[in-house]
Amino acid sequence: MENEVTYSFMAKKGKDICVVVDTRSEDEFLCGHIPGAINIPESQLLASLDKFSKEKEYYLCSKTGECSQEAAANLQNRGIKAFALIGGYVGWLKESMGAIDPKNKAREVEESIRKKFHRKIFSKFCKAINEYELLKPNDKVAVCISGGKDSMLMAKLFQELQRHNKFDFELVFLVMNPGYSPENLEIIKKNAEILNIPITIFETNIFENVFSIEKSPCYICARMRRGYLYSEAKKLGCNKIALGHHYDDVIETILMGMLYGAQVQTMMPKLHSTNFSGMELIRPMYLIREEDIIAWRDYNCLNFIQCACKFTENCHLENSAFGSTSSKRKKVKNLIAMLKKDDPQVDQNIFASVENVNLSTVIAYKDKSGVVHNFKDDYEN
């Protein structure tokens, strides 16, 4: 039995007998999937045989299709009509994006920001910029776009702000290619076209440089990417780079620092660069909830790849060293969600905790110069 088919072939057979099984991780599935698909990660397929009926046909969808062939063969050996979707989610995404009219879609997205999502997204974007003084007259900002939902929305918010703002500032929409696969880069370009974002792409070989690093490759990759972004932005005459970290990133970082780093710290709304004089990093999505970003994405029927990193092409990421940081953040995200069921204010309290630090009630702390102060130093006084 052949175990590979195209999405078009499957679609012709009808939904009554055809079921799309997305074998990517839960996070990737939530980031975007084929309509009607169910999510059973590849590692759980054989343990989920009770979910399959021998009366139906199942079309396995991995990220690019490469990981589905063996899984489909294993299910076929157990009497299940299973096939691998050629091209996987990326293939379906490219096909569906090709049918979108960019002019109309960009207009619809912009209108949704002005109306439906004005209070929960645009107003909070403006509040962060005002409250943390992230933008000043004559700034030139490199809006750094990774291709995901957060950075793409940030780009649209900056465009909207520029249309209505009371002072002049310039924008450059900067995309770094650290070694994306051709398919992933094509999707980033297509989404930028659909959203009417005039991106500037520059090339690096970061993925190749960190590929053989065993310890903390993701941390090193992130540090290198930020350095390249600063450098390229400065070449383009920018004095600031903008990153798309949101409210949930902030509170997760606070808890991760405490639970895994034994320290109390937060992700700051803005930072001066220590290596690039005159450059500053800003996070204008600082007050925007991830659930509202997801609602905006789904309302506009937009699809993004969760991570275009080459390491995530590995079919067994969860068992590799590259999944460690991601799994810790996932655990913290789940912990916050669980606590919120009993107390909906938990996330707000976590956020506010780093604004209400009482130095007289901590055992020790470091000042800006790195000097450690202990409560015993002046206890007798």
Please describe the structure with a list of short key phrases separated by commas or semicolons.
single chain; 381 residues; alpha/beta; Oxidized Rhodanese, domain 1; Rossmann fold; six-stranded mixed sheet; 14 helices
- Number of continuous helical runs: 14
Named CATH architecture of the largest domain: 3-Layer(aba) Sandwich
Succession of helices and strands: EHEHEEHEHHHEHEHEHHEHEEHHHEE
End-to-end C-alpha gap: 83 Å
Say what the CATH topology of the largest domain is: Rossmann fold
Could you tell me the mean pLDDT? 88
Query: What is the CATH class designation of the largest domain?
Result: Alpha Beta
Tell me the number of strands.
13
The biggest sheet amounts to: 6 strands, mixed
Question: What is the CATH homologous superfamily assignment of the largest domain?
Answer: HUPs
Give the strand content: 5-15%
By secondary-structure content and strand pairing, the structural class works out as: alpha/beta
Number of domains: 2
Radius of gyration: 23 Å
The low-pLDDT segments are: 312-323
Structure description:
By secondary structure, this protein is of the alpha/beta class. It folds into 2 domains: 4-97, Rhodanese-like domain (Oxidized Rhodanese, domain 1), CATH 3.40.250.10; 102-318, HUPs (Rossmann fold, 3-Layer(aba) Sandwich). It is 43% helix and 14% strand. The chain is built from 14 helices and 13 strands. It has helices at residues 7-13, 26-31, 68-76, 88-97, 102-114, 118-131, 149-164, 182-194, 206-210, 217-235, 247-261, 290-299, 324-342, 346-353; strands spanning 4-5, 18-22, 38-39, 57-61, 81-85, 140-144, 170-177, 199-203, 240-242, 270-272, 280-282, 364-366, 372-374. The strands form 3 sheets. A 6-stranded mixed β-sheet has the order 8-7-6-9-11-10, sandwiched between helices. Strands 1-5-4-2-3 form a 5-stranded parallel β-sheet. A hairpin with a 7-residue loop joins strand 10 (270-272) and strand 11 (280-282). Helix 11 (247-261) crosses helix 13 (324-342). The longest helix is centred in the middle third of the chain and has 19 residues, at 217-235. The chain is globular. The N and C termini lie far apart (83 Å). 33% of the residues are buried.
